[in-house]
Amino acid sequence: MNTETNKTIKALHRHVFLGNFDQGVIFIFLSFLVWNKTESMLTVALAFIIPAVVNTVIDYFFSSLSDKGNRVALIIIGNVGSAIFLSCYGLFSGIYILYIFIFFKSLFEKIYQTSLSPYFREVIPEGDFKRFIAKTNTYGTIGASIGGFSLIYLYIYTQNIPLIFIVSGLIELVSTLFLFSLGNTKQKLKKDVESPIDAAKLKRFTFIYSLEAFGTALIINRFVIFLNDSHELQVQDVGLVFFIVYGISNLLAADLYKFFSSFAIKNMLIVNFSFQAILLIVMMSVNSLNLIIVLWFFFELVSNITTIYTDDHINKTLFTNIGKSLSKFRICISISGILGQFLIGTIWDIGGIGISFYFTGSILFTLAIIILFLKLNADEPKQAVIDNGN
């Protein structure tokens, strides 16, 4: 890699580190903020359906804009707007005003995301992309863990959720400073246009992750509320558990992924979804809090390892109109996620937490079986290669 690319990667990693300080805030404090107001899982679901709707309706337009415009400028604008509206969460008691802020925050976050993902594809050399994903996950995890613990302790001492969102927004705003040093040096791709095989491969990944999004909708929200409601953990204790599980599993995945190079991606997906389904079913069958936390940890670990490989495979199918291609991928997943959020929110309210997890487990098992009959191109095992990070 040349000097300009190395400089860009360092700036991205610093931005990701600081920008992820509030990663758990959305899932934890927003879930509890809405839950405490309404005690309805459907209203919690709506707070997360709004971003999904924005993803579905606006994504393609912003992705097209990104393909034609200055990606770095759009990344900066999106990050600044997202930070400002995040700071406004919790400042007003009305839940509808909160939903408005969520909408505008999601709008700017979408500008940010639709430019950042194709930017990765264009500036990171293809051979280094998998390692880049792993290191980016590491920086993001460390940032989220440090920030999460800090924000949890801030909540313990202040018992003030609006303050948490204000501080989170300010930190996200500061992370923008690193974006100003991003370069626009594009790597030469091995092809000028996608082949029919590339297009078919992306469609199959889209189907797989759309069905997963449907079945696992609100999964983190359900985990944290489950620990709070069923096991009577305080909000701050749930937060600590979340960051321990999320942080350690991501850090381990960033190292362990190297040892799965001999796995065909198809086999990895089947093992991932089958194992996750089993973990969810076992989780609902035990009463030990410690065991439940361990099961949740392994649920996240296998998912994180698999994601590193699937992201790399998806990345290697994209050559032209990268923003639009990723947009179609995200839109399908968002629509499935919206449907899943409505259905799982209803299942929770009617049948309870256990039924919602059993439903998710059944979807994941079904997905693993379906993948058995899918042809994922270039999924033959290769000789294992240990990435030493050099």
What does this protein structure show overall?
The chain has 390 residues and is an all-alpha fold. The chain has one domain: Up-down Bundle (Growth Hormone, Chain: A), CATH 1.20.1250. It is 77% helix and 0% strand. It has 14 helices and no strands. Helix 4 runs antiparallel to helix 5, helix 4 runs antiparallel to helix 7 and helix 8 packs parallel to helix 13.
Give the C-level CATH assignment.
Mainly Alpha
Let me know the CATH homologous superfamily: MFS general substrate transporter like domains
What is the tally of helical segments? 14
Shape: globular
What profile does the largest beta sheet have?
none
Helix content: over 70%
User: What string, H for helix and E for strand, traces the elements in order?
Assistant: HHHHHHHHHHHHHH
Strand content: under 5%
Class from secondary-structure proportions: mainly alpha
Which residues form runs of ≥5 with pLDDT under 50?
Answer: 379-390
Rg over CA atoms: 20 Å
Number of DSSP strand runs: 0
